[in-house]
From TrEMBL:
<dbReference type="InterPro" id="IPR020097">
    <property type="entry name" value="PsdUridine_synth_TruA_a/b_dom"/>
</dbReference>
<dbReference type="GO" id="GO:0031119">
    <property type="term" value="P:tRNA pseudouridine synthesis"/>
</dbReference>
<dbReference type="Pfam" id="PF01416">
    <property type="entry name" value="PseudoU_synth_1"/>
</dbReference>
<dbReference type="GO" id="GO:0003723">
    <property type="term" value="F:RNA binding"/>
</dbReference>
<dbReference type="InterPro" id="IPR020103">
    <property type="entry name" value="PsdUridine_synth_cat_dom_sf"/>
</dbReference>
<feature type="domain" description="Pseudouridine synthase I TruA alpha/beta">
    <location>
        <begin position="8"/>
        <end position="103"/>
    </location>
</feature>
<feature type="binding site">
    <location>
        <position position="110"/>
    </location>
    <ligand>
        <name>substrate</name>
    </ligand>
</feature>
<dbReference type="InterPro" id="IPR020094">
    <property type="entry name" value="TruA/RsuA/RluB/E/F_N"/>
</dbReference>
<feature type="active site" description="Nucleophile">
    <location>
        <position position="52"/>
    </location>
</feature>
<keyword id="KW-0819">tRNA processing</keyword>
<feature type="domain" description="Pseudouridine synthase I TruA alpha/beta">
    <location>
        <begin position="143"/>
        <end position="245"/>
    </location>
</feature>
<feature type="region of interest" description="Disordered">
    <location>
        <begin position="248"/>
        <end position="271"/>
    </location>
</feature>
<dbReference type="InterPro" id="IPR020095">
    <property type="entry name" value="PsdUridine_synth_TruA_C"/>
</dbReference>
<protein>
    <recommendedName>
        <fullName>tRNA pseudouridine synthase A</fullName>
        <ecNumber>5.4.99.12</ecNumber>
    </recommendedName>
</protein>
<comment type="subunit">
    <text>Homodimer.</text>
</comment>
<comment type="function">
    <text>Formation of pseudouridine at positions 38, 39 and 40 in the anticodon stem and loop of transfer RNAs.</text>
</comment>
<comment type="similarity">
    <text>Belongs to the tRNA pseudouridine synthase TruA family.</text>
</comment>
Amino acid sequence: MRNIMLTVEYDGTNYCGWQTQPNATSVQEIMEGALAQMLGEPVRLHASGRTDAGVHALGMAACFQTDKTMPLRAFREGLNTLLPRDIAVREAREMPLDFNPRFHAQGKHYRYTFLLDDIRSPLTRHTAWRLKGKLDVEAARRACAEFVGEHDFAAFRASNCAAKTTVREIYSMDLTQDGRFLYLDVRGSGFLKNMIRVIAGTLVEVGQGKRTPEDIRQLLEGGDRRASGQTAPPQGLCLMEVFYPEVGAEPDPHPARRKPRRARDLEGEGT
C-alpha cells in the first residue's frame, strides 16, 4: 500500500468549498471522481483542512492510499487530464503510511487580497475584495502586530464554528501594498472557521478609522464575535501553503520563524 500526497491548486469560485457536501459541488468530490476514474476504484482523500465556498488554494495538501505501482508523475499528469480547468494537481509525492496531512501539519499560510480602487475591476472580481475610498494602511499594519502570538480568537470566528478550543497561535502577520493591491499574509498554527476573513474585515475597519489598532487587544480579551468586524468576502482568500516537518524529524513549533520547508522539500518527486 502507498500513501500519496497531492498538492492541489484551485479556483474556488464555482465550488461549495473543499469538503464534500450534500446538494453542492465541492473540490474534494471532483478530485475523488477523477481519482476513481484514473485508478478504477473508489478513493477517499484526506486533506490538510477545509476551505469555504469561493475560497481559493495554491497549496492544499491531500492524501489517498492505493496499491497502484504507477510512477508519481503519472498521478499528477493523469489527474490533470481528467480535472476541470479550475483545479490542478501541482505535485504528487509518496509519504509514510502513517502520515496524515491534517495532523502532521505544523502550520499554514493564508493570503487575503484587497483591491484599493473606486472603480470595479472585472478581472479581479473573483480574487480580491474591492475597497472604495481611502484606507489608512499604516494603521491597519500596526493592528496586525496585535494578533501575533498565542491568543483566544473566539471573537474572530464564525458563529457556527464547532472547534472545541478557540486558542490559536499566529506566527506572523504582514500587510504589504503593491500598487492598487494590498496583501494580508498570515502564518499560524491553525485557524478557526472564517478566522482570517473576520480578521481581514476588522483590519479594514481600522484602516477606515472606525477602530484603532489598540482596539484589537480588547477584542481578543473580550471574546465576543459581535464586537469584532465584518466577515470579509471569500473571494479574496487563498490557502498558499501548508507547512510540514522533514520526514522523521521532530515537529518545529514555529515553522514560520525559519525559512519554511515547502512541499517540494519533502520526500518524493520535485515540482
